[in-house]
Structures are given as structure tokens and as C-alpha cells.
Amino acid sequence: MADGSPVTNAPVNKVGVTGFDPYAARAQFPILSRQVNGKPLVYLDSAASAQKPRAVIDALVASMEGSYANVHRGLHTLSNEATEAYERAREIVARFLNAPSAETIVWTKGGTEAINLVANGVGLSIQPGDEIIVTEMEHHSNIVPWHILRERRGAVLKWAPIKDDGSLDMEAFAALLGPKTKLVAVTHMSNVLGAINPVAEITRLAHAAGAQVLIDGCQGAVHAAPDVQAIGCDYYVLTGHKLFAPTGIGVLYGTAEALEALPPYQGGGEMIETVEKERVTYARPPHRFEAGTPPILEAIGLGAAIEWLAQYEPATIQAHEKALYHHAVERLREYDWLRILGEAEGKGAILTFSVEGAHAHDVAQIMDRYGVAVRAGLHCAEPLAKRLGVPSSTRASFALYNTMEDADAFVDALIKARNFFV
């Protein structure tokens, strides 16, 4: 599964995919019991940010009420307890990613900061003309940091194209690699198209060309069962809030060699060994990159989220999400006013679309009248929107807590929204 291979859809029964009960999962999310505009909430915006289960909420409350203190610096009981919980969360993330050790896990405030951390460090060695390869399906967080290196260091951005079905054109990607390629930065799973990229093959090709590889796993960590050792990448990035954890926490995985070669990103407490008037020496990774008071509660929350998620088999969850996606798509096939953006084989359960004669923002607002929460706009992927020829689009993203009733409510609300404009 590390390479994003398609998951075979299991048989669907009344409660979803065999072996998984989405209603039991849904019951663990307090917010999903509320109503919006007098209708049951149908939350289909998990690609932007996922809701939080009771286990994560309780972990945060317990930490704040029972053992909160700053970490690493104290010798008292509360500090020791907080430090233990904080570093245990790092170990949980390492196991989740199949990282070789917790020392390869760096805490950040999100996926965006993790990518910027790498860009800042790698950028110091970038020379004019050095090439960075990205793809047309990247999120802005995996585009703008490299544009900054283009502006400031003279780097050359090269764009791997996508095919019309939304999949990455691997032949064209391979042709871009050359002796000037210094870094390949590619998403594991597109937040718009749902396409899951063959990241192990991408890494193999890039390494053969002498380039480092960064994988944006902000979607892939949730839906594509990442295994960083199987992928072989130098860096893998994820964000907690899409993984049922709080906002304000992210992760940079790096190989021991890659992290050791990176200079500090920010200066302050914790990231140093010694500070003198004439010189300063820096801590070893991962603490070298964690200046100041870290996101203690948020890290503990991410650890709780991953432990909670571990009760489910990743393949079963993927099959459930894809069953909802395919159910909605099959119901919508008869309508010629709908254009689905991205139908690559093996894609994840993200349904992005445009509606003939209606602006995406208007579609989303009308659907909200029926309690259906979807996202509209460019989805922080403006180059992709231009490639697809759409000014904006609407996106429904399915998660493990969604049900067949949610999928039907989505389709019904979308049809009503379309009828409003004709």
C-alpha cells in the first residue's frame, strides 16, 4: 500500500464495507450529531480538515487538566509526565510511518511549515540553474516554497504534467530528470483529483538521477497507508488536522542522513547544545529543528488520533471511502451538467466537480442549506485549475465517518442546487 496501489473494493452491505461499521465510527465524533440549517450534518470537507473523535478530545482535556507543563526543561513531576507523553507521541508517529526511529520525526506546526523547513535548508545549497521538479497537481504549500527558491536562489521549476484522467504522466516526469535536478517534490495523493501517485517509483527514478525526494503526505497519510521505508523518500510531510488530530501540529520525517545535513530552521531554546558569546553549537536532529516551546498538547493529540485510528485496517477504511465515492458517482452519471475532475484508476475518495451554469461557491452555499458541507474554490491548487480549464470547482471528500446516507444526501443536495439555477 505504500505505493498507492488500488484497493480492491470489498462487498458493500447495509452498514458499508464488510468488516467496518461506519455508524459506530461516526458515533465517536460528537460534532457529527449536530444539525445545520435544521438538517443532519453531512460533513464532506475532510480533505480540508477532518473532525475529531472523542478519544482525541479526551486526551487533550486529560493533558490540560492533569499533567500539563513545559517539556524537557523541568525536573518536577508535571514536566516529566508531559515530556513522556510528548515524546511517546513522536514514537507513535514513527510507527505509523514505519520510520526507522523516533529521531527521524520532527514536530512542526503543520505540513506547510515542514515543507518550508526543508526548502529553507536545501535552499542554502541551491545554485542558479539547479532544478526542482513539482507536478501540476500540487497544493500551494508544495509550490510556493520552491518559487521562493526560484526568486531568491535562481532555481528552475520544472512541471511534471498530468494526463486528462488526473493521473501523473510518469513518462513525461522521467524525461524531466537530469543532472541539474536537485529535488523532486510531489504529493502522495492530490487534494483535488484524489489521484494517488506511485511515490516509490518516483523516488527510485529521482534517486537514480541524484536528486532528493520530498513527499507531501498531507492527504496520503490519511488515505494511502504510508510506509516511508518502502517508499524510500528523503522527506515525508504530514499534517495532524487532516488526520483527526488538532490543528497546529505537523510532522517532517527525514532520513537520518537528510536531517543531519539540514541546517537549523529557526533559532531559540531547545535546538542548541551550547550558547556562548562567541559561538553556538546546535542539537542533533530532531531537536535541532524544534526551537522554543513546542506544540505539546497538539503533539499529544496527534498521538491519540493515530492510536485511535489504529483500531481499523487501512485497506478496509479505503474500501469503505471508495464505496461511498463510487455510489455517489454512479448516481450522478446520468446528468450531463456535471463534470468530474479526475478519474484516475485507484484514486482516493475525493469527488471534485464543476456544474454547468453555476459557480462553485453558489453550489456550495445552496448545498449548505441542506446540511451538506462541501468546499468550493481553487483548493489551493491554482496551476491545476488552469490545467483543467476551470475557474473554480466544488469538492466533496469522504472519510471513514461518512455513510451511504451521507453519499445520498450529497447527491440529492447537489441536484437541488443545480435545479436552483435552471
Provide structural commentary:
This protein has 15 helices and 19 strands. The N and C termini lie far apart (44 Å). The protein has a seven-stranded mixed beta sheet, with helices on both faces. A four-stranded antiparallel beta sheet has the order 15-16-19-18, covered by helices on one side. By secondary structure, the chain is α/β, with parallel strands linked by helices. Strand 1 and strand 2 form a beta hairpin. Helix 4 packs parallel to helix 5, helix 12 packs parallel to helix 15 and helix 13 crosses helix 15. Its EC number is 2.8.1.7. It is an enzyme of class 2 (transferase).
The biggest beta sheet, please?
Answer: 7 strands, mixed
- The percentage helix is 25-40%
| Beta-strand share of residues | 15-25%
Total beta strands: 19
Family: Belongs to the class-V pyridoxal-phosphate-dependent aminotransferase family. Csd subfamily.
Function: Catalyzes the removal of elemental sulfur and selenium atoms from L-cysteine, L-cystine, L-selenocysteine, and L-selenocystine to produce L-alanine.
Catalytic activity: (sulfur carrier)-H + L-cysteine = (sulfur carrier)-SH + L-alanine
Protein name: Cysteine desulfurase
